[in-house]
Amino acid sequence: MPQYIDYAEYYDYDIASAPFADIPFYLHYAHWCGSPILELACGTGRVLIPLAKAGFEMYGVDFSENMLAVCHRKVMENGLTDRVHLSRADMASFDLPRKDFAFVYIPVRSFMHLFTFANQISCLQQVVVPF
């Protein structure tokens, strides 16, 4: 069995050959929906940081302390502490102080980290607003 290697520092460059090609897609929907925005599985902030730089109030949830440490460093380096809020939690079970997100997304293939149907449903129930 291969040993797990934490590569949080290099994660941003592991998205095929164009690690930032999807940013315009998320920016488009952010402009359409507005703030506040919730990113589940925010990792290193590869998507979250550009949206925060564009002026959106961002909330990020991730389970990995190492990924969040990289994201936090980027938040500090870019002077975004006033509009970025990070939480370490499982995306299938989290509790944030606010629930009124205008836009919620899970970037790339991160939803696939929820291995059971029960966890997938739980994740979606966390962010669905009942009618």
Brief overview:
With 131 residues, the chain is an alpha/beta fold. The protein contains 4 helices and 4 strands, in the order H-E-H-E-H-E-E-H.
Write a structural description:
The chain has 131 residues and is an alpha/beta fold. The chain has a single domain (21-127), classed as Vaccinia Virus protein VP39 (Rossmann fold). 31% of the residues lie in helices and 13% in strands. The chain is built from 4 helices and 4 strands. The protein has helices at residues 23-33, 48-53, 65-77, 117-127; strands spanning 37-40, 58-62, 84-88, 103-105. It has a 4-stranded parallel beta sheet with strand order 3-2-1-4. Strand 2 (58-62), helix 3 and strand 3 form a beta-alpha-beta unit.
Task: State the main characteristics.
single chain, 131 residues, alpha/beta, Rossmann fold, 4 helices, 31% helix, 13% strand, globular
Q: How do the SSEs run, as a string of H and E?
A: HEHEHEEH
Give the tally of structural domains. Answer: 1
Kindly provide the name of the CATH class: Alpha Beta
The strands making up the biggest β-sheet line up spatially as: 3-2-1-4
What is the tally of helical segments? 4
Total beta-strand segments? 4
Spans where pLDDT lies below 50 across 5 or more residues: none
Strand content: 5-15%
Structural class: alpha/beta
Report the span from N to C terminus.
47 Å
Could you name the CATH topology? Rossmann fold
